[in-house]
Each structure stands twice: as C-alpha cells, then as structure tokens.
Amino acid sequence: MEVNPLSIILVKSDSKGDRLLFRYPFQTQENNEPSSTKRKNPYTLPIVEDLLQSLSQSSSNMNKGNLAGFTDEVLSSLFAVKAELSNRKFELKVNDVRFVGHPTLLPLRKKKEQPQQDDSGIMLINIVFALQALASHSVVKCYHDLSKRMGIALKHEEKRCGYISDQTQTMTSAHDDGYTSPGSAFQIILEKCTLAMNIKKMYDDLCSTGLVSIRINKWIPLSFCLPQKVHQWHLRGKIVEPEDIDKCLKALRPYHSLLLLYPAQHMNDFTSLDGSPSLIRLLSNYSPLKNLQTLAADAELTLAHVFELTAHLVYWAKATIIFPICSTNKYVISPTAPIHLNSPLVEKFNETFSGLNLARVISDFSLPTSLGQRCNPLCHPSQQSQLVQTIIWMLQHHLLLQLHTYIQYLPTENGLHKDYKKKQLKSPSPRNSVILSNQPSASEHSRAESESGASTISETPEFTLKNFNSEHLSFISTDDDKQDYQEELLLDFSDEERSSVFKIPATNNPEDLQLFAKLCRKEYFQGNHHIEEIMYLENLRRSQLLQLLDKFRDVLITYETEDPAIAMFSCSST
Which UniProt keywords apply (predicted)? Predict the structure, then answer.
C-alpha cells in the first residue's frame, strides 16, 4: 500500500562529517551490494557520482515492502545536505522510491568545558521517510510535516538538555565498535537509544493504524495522524485524502450532527492527548440526536469553535458527519454494506444487542423507510430507544444511507426552459418590495442566529406570512389587480413558464404564490438543496414546505439521494 513508509532514516552532518546514524527496518540490509560501492578503508570519502551511477544498475529499490539496494554511505551522502538547504522541504526520487524529509539545523547545547560556541557546535539532522514513488502529493505532504515536527521537537530537547548530542554520540560509538554482521550496530542502538525506539514505534504505528503517539525524550509529546491510512478501518479500505476532508468540512452546516465512531467513554486516551478542556465539554454533552448548533449551546461553546472541534475529530477518524437522528429521517441499506451471513458484523451486532438479529433489523430498510414509519407510538419507550441505538450502530458501521429529498423545477413538458439558467433573475418591483418588506430576510435571520448560537433549529422562529394581511392586499382586491399582482410576482419568468404556473389553482393564494416565486428566485428548486437545508436557510416548517410541494406538484418534482456534502464518509460514494 503506497501510504506506508518503506523505511525511516536518521542522518546527521556536523564538523566531523556526515553519517547515517539509524534506519528502520534494518533487517533487510543487503550483503550483495556492488563491490565498487564498498569502502574498505572507513576513513576514505565516498565519491557521490560513483555512488549514484551504481544505483542505476537496479531499476527497483523495493523488496517486500522495504527499502533495498542502498548502502549506508549512499544514504548519508544523499541526505546530509548543505546548511543552505536546511529548514525547508527535502524531496528526492530515485527509481521507484521517493525520499521526503525536512533537514533541521540546530545549535548543540553548550557544555561547561566549552564556554565559547563555534561552528563545531552546529549539527544538521534529517529524518527521512522512504516512500513509494507512486505516493500521492498529499501523502508526501503529510510525511514532510511529520519530519518537520520531529525536527522541531528534537531541536527543543537539544536546547533544553543536550538530548541530540547524547543520542548521536551513543549511536556513533555503536557504529565505531566494528560490528561485522549487518544490522548488529542498529540492534545495539535500538536497545540503548530512546530516539531509535521512537523511530521504530513511529514506523510500526504508521504501518498499522496511521496514528502516531510518542514522547521525545519521555518529555515532548508528538501526535500525528495519517488520514489516508486511519480512515481505512471504518471505510473498508477507501483512501480518504485530506483535501476531501477539507471539502466536507467547508460544507458543514449548523443543522448537521456529530456521530462518534467510538463510545464517548472510550475517548479518554484521545482527550488526554489532546488536552483541550473544550473538547471534553463537547463530548460530555454529545448526542447524535443534537445538531451542532444545539450542541454548541449545551456545551456553552461558540458555534465556530464547535466546528473546529468537529473538524479535529473527523480528521482523526474519531467521528463522522450525519444529519441529526429524528423521526423524519429516511434510511436505506447501503449498496456496499457487508451483511452476508458470514460477515463479522453479524456477530458483533449480536454481542452489542443480545436477542436481535442484524439481518432482520436491517431488512426493514430494504426500501427507503423513515424512523417515523418504524416507530410504533404504542411501543414502550425502551423499545423506541433500542431502535435508535441500532440505527446509531448501523450508521457507525456504514450499513445505512440517509436519503434527503431534493426538488427540481420543471415548468414545461420539455423540461426546464432553455434560457432559465442563463438569465439573471430580476429583483421584485417596488410595489412587491413593499409586500415583502413586512418580513425580515430569512438568510439574515439565519445568519444572525448562527452567529449568536443561542437557539436550536427546532426552536428557531418559523418563517410565516402572518403580517401579510388584508391591508396589504387591498390594492389587489379586483380580478384585474389580482392578475397584475400574479404576473408581477412572476415577472422574471418566461411566458411559457408563467402559462404553466397560472394553470395551478394554488396561484390564487397570494401567500403560496409569493413563497413559490421567492424559492424559485433563490434557486432552491434546481436540485442542489434538500428539504432540510431549505427549512434551515429560510426558516420554514416542514409541513409548510411539503404543502407547497403538493400544491405546485405540476411544475415541481422530487427525488431522493444522499447529501453530497457528507457523502465522502459513505462507503457507497465514489
């Protein structure tokens, strides 16, 4: 798998020369290297040109997922760069291997017997990751970030207690002892040096889970997440790029909800590592039945900060994004759900919910079904609670997809008018503006509530037209005035569209026609906004919107699909 490192290499360069101090794994060090590259005299300097020419003899430098074909002298010559290239990205491609690092120049800690600092007190260290050459740009960027953070931590420890000086001296002594068998010096270094132990643990964590958690010199905590690796366990091998996560988080809305992939009580290790008291407050008030706006109010956090914490949990594969679980949610079985009889999820479900069978529970969602249809009002509350818990479990394991209703405006028999997308919708006329001025802008109202974070979606004042009373309709009391008013509301529609809309009986109701024209102008009926999003943005009740869809069903069609904003966390998405 191209996200796993082939090897991790530690190289240093100082006034005494450059040297490869440690590499892991080291068991695959070759004995059949070309004789021209071997240095019989350990005090001779290698010729870089000759070393590079010897590399061209082999077209591959990978062997069973590990780095092969490079001697220590070659690697030290390649990675011990000049001081001018320090503190910047290092990237080198040789055959089918790409090397990534961040050389760090650090001043060695002054010793009591050396009161003056000179050039001999400067050392360059470079922690290099060997990757497959096919590794994506985002994977290379992540490993460069890890190398840079390692360099910063080591620089801090060298300044604090001379950690690097002690570690490099121990490593150099192990190499100078003259071990003959390949890997003997590295094995001694691994037993004596904590830095080598950290490199080994880093390699093992990157290859196994993609989550790194180490302490440099048992003091500086270093945590790292490789999202391309860590999301594979719950998305069954799907590669998730950081750019995909950023795109999803940019589409995050206050009406979305957070779904933890682990029980909240099992997140202690993660919260202790993060050290954020606001994250602990968020998790203590967590519920997949709450939207993020409600969660922010209950945790007494700003909505913007809740978004940041949500992004943190999603990036580290501790949570995913869903729509809050409620009775109107409609679910269907995911097309990639592993629900065959021999699936390990069947036994796992039985262990979590004794007495229930996964195949029987999930069969109720063979066709799109809402929770309201599954919940029997006569059932005991414990049964309803158990149903909600099974839904949460199936969502955590990506067995269900939530379907949202989208609306498409099709006013003519041939579909959408050809000039509909090209034309610029006109603003309402002054007379129409007087009518609309009695209601505050729904978008402004929604924006103000998002900034305040003081109310939830369920508590948001609903958009109504109660102020649109008979006084404002006095000027359209006659049939001619009424027809003029209708035509004025649809002034920016084509003649063919107006003809189709005027055939609908609901156009006789000014409130319905006004709301229909308003939603059309805001392009909510182009299949890009689902009902829940329209409700939130325009402060509409679900019943009010569904009634409008029913009244204008001759020109509005609906279809159901998943929300593309969070489809990345679905195994069925491509």
Answer: Lysosome, Signal
Amino acid at 172: T
Give me 556's structure tokens. 């509005």
Q: Helix 292-299 and helix 277-284: axis angle, to 10°?
A: 110
Q: CA 52, CA 57: separation in Å to the nearest integer? A: 10
- Whether residue 516 contacts residue 485, with contact meaning beta carbons closer than 8 Å, is answered with no
Residue 275: pLDDT band (50, 70, 90) is: low
> Is 70 exceeded by the pLDDT of residue 279?
yes
Res 311 pLDDT > 50: yes
Give the Å distances, CA to CA, from 292 to 32, 319, 409: 60, 13, 31
Q: What confidence score (pLDDT) does residue 407 get?
A: 94
Please list, in sequence order, all residues whose beta carbon lies within 8 angstroms of the beta carbon of residue 468, skipping any fewer than 6 positions away.
435, 438, 439, 510, 511, 514
Token digits of residue 494: 């084509």
Q: Which of 189, 210, 214, 188 is nearest to 201 (CA)?
A: 214
Q: What share of the chain is helix, strand, coil (3-state, %, to 5)?
A: 45, 15, 40
Q: How confident is the model at residue 534 (pLDDT cuts 50, 70, 90)?
A: very high
Size of the chain, expressed as the number of residues it contains: 574
What mean pLDDT value characterizes the chain? Answer: 79
Strands 319-322 and 220-225: unpaired
Half-sphere exposure at residue 234, Cβ-oriented, CA atoms within 13 angstroms? 24
Tens of pLDDT, residues 246-265:
888 888 899 999 999 988 77
**Cis amide linkage into residue 25, ω under 30° from 0:** yes
Residue showing tokens 């049939």: 479
Q: Map residue 53 onto helix, strand or coil.
A: helix
